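Z., the sequence and structure:
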Amino acid sequence: MTPLLSGQSRRKPPLMLLERTDVHLTLSFIDALCWFVAAFALIAFRYDFELNAVQWSSVLVYSIFAASAQMLLGWLAGVYRGSNRIGSFIEASTMATVTLAVGFIVGLVFMIGVPDYPNGVAFLAPFLALILMGAARFVARAVAIQIFQRYKAAGKAERILLYGAGNAGRMVGNLFFSDPDSKFQVVGLIDDDPRKRHRRFEFGRVVGQRKDMIAKARALGVQSVLVAIPTASADFLKQLSSDLDAAGMKMLVLPPLREWSGGQLKLGDIHEFDVTDLLGRDPIKTDLTSIADYVRGKVVLITGAGGSIGSEIARQVHQFGPKELVCLDRDESALHSVQLSIYGQGLLDTPDMVLCDIRDKPALQKIFEAHRPHVVFHAAALKHLPLLEQYPDEGWKTNVLGTLDVLECAAEFGVETFVNISTDKAADPTSVLGKTKRRAEELTAWFAENHDGNYLSVRFGNVLGSRGSVLHTFAQQIERGGPITVVHPDVTRFFMTIPEACQLVIQAGAVGQGGQVLVLNMGEPVRILDMAKRLIRDSGKDIGVRITGLREGEKLHEVLFSGAEQSSPSIHPLISAVRVAPRSPVQLVAPWVDNEDRPEPHSVTKRPVQNDQTGWSPAHEKELNGASVGAAIPDGSK
């Protein structure tokens, strides 16, 4: 449940008092009284009180029997035990069933057993009593609603507009309306369906369409709009967010329907529109259960299992029941974290948690010999672009030679499926990171041609939430009070979430063909400056943005395919496949080492050059002009 706002009373408001047990007991007496009122009211209108003493006594006894039966059957049926909310459809239907059943049974007994009993009372009393019971509930709830709204206003709940008057909108409105701890108060709804114009709900009414949204929000004193459309497209959300940003308002969104717990929405699931909603496309929906047979009952080895991607792959693979899940990493703390997240304990005393560096081939061979994996997900890599520009040999040793070590072990011990995790920086690479990951793709393609097994690569862009990602960096800079640093005002990047990336990786192992590079259609790239400004605004702090200038090897705009690559559709509509030219290990390492033999890591001495024998060319990257290095952009400027 959403926490109370500071200063908000914990006293239950009247609407919530309707759910207390003592209130239900009181209601049972009111319902009993309705039988007396109904019976004597019918006598007044039907017989004008012209009954003899015997008839009067029989009507009194009838009312006593009916009222007692109502309380007894109502208790047994749950009407007076708080089983259902007062005034709800279930409560109303149960009450009607009980009342009509009581009227039929008691009325039949009196009509047969009491000759002078008025038949009109026996027939009509149950219906009039039911109407009176409903009226009593309506009045009680109407009074409670009015007091409850004043209670929430006094508690300084934030006034919001709901965008969408469909099922989700009504659900959200009712949640806010009935929860005394909710920090939101719905004051109106926006919907583009003309048939819903001026439609009223218990929690508010439709006050206009999208074109009226900003004006209505200002008139009603609203600073936030909740989009209650769980199927809204990314483009729609981005445009609506832009309109609200321009008006200085916030936008709240619902989680995707698939994330609703048991098909029900919880208040804690509602969140402010953030960078994860700015992917420029709808989330990829992958049914991994239909393609996971290649890992079920198999030995699966994951390199770099302690990283953001590797650990999520491990968690997703684990749910499909592999025979053994071997997590390999050179960081013991990372192994502890991934074991804790999968198994709920982090003792690190089992052979499936392996401390090993992929640059140590003899140690790697022992691991492969001991576990004999059927499937390998190769996620181990050095990935920070500026650092690798300073230490290119380290990037080469890990991303190229380390990958070659893993590939050679996989081939030696008969791995069935090998999935190499790559990056969009491998397309037309201009950096050490891009070049080394491109070489890893080419190595993987060569092994696909020259060895048994399915060897392929998966290429995707930046991952939101991964360690060292732009999102983490910005969050830390905001925490320190700023400024946020952006390399260029126009720099853009492709983004995806960690679950999406890992689902793609797992799917690639099932649908990809040997030698292919599978590439996700990641929609429109996201402007990093826009992301920075949104995070600043959400933080509520006065923080500026400083432009630092593009670093060596860094691109203004990333691409998913190189100029020479021809993409073709794959089995998934949002995934394309390309093929890279395979290159043998000797061809790849020769330009980087002192000799053309397969080197050990310590013999790598040469810094990579722009035009080496591997055919890489920086032709696609030109000199970028624009912002001056060190220029500051204040928060809110364009």
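The chain is about 40% helix and 15% strand. The chain has three domains: 14-150, 157-273, 288-603.

Let me know what you think.
H.
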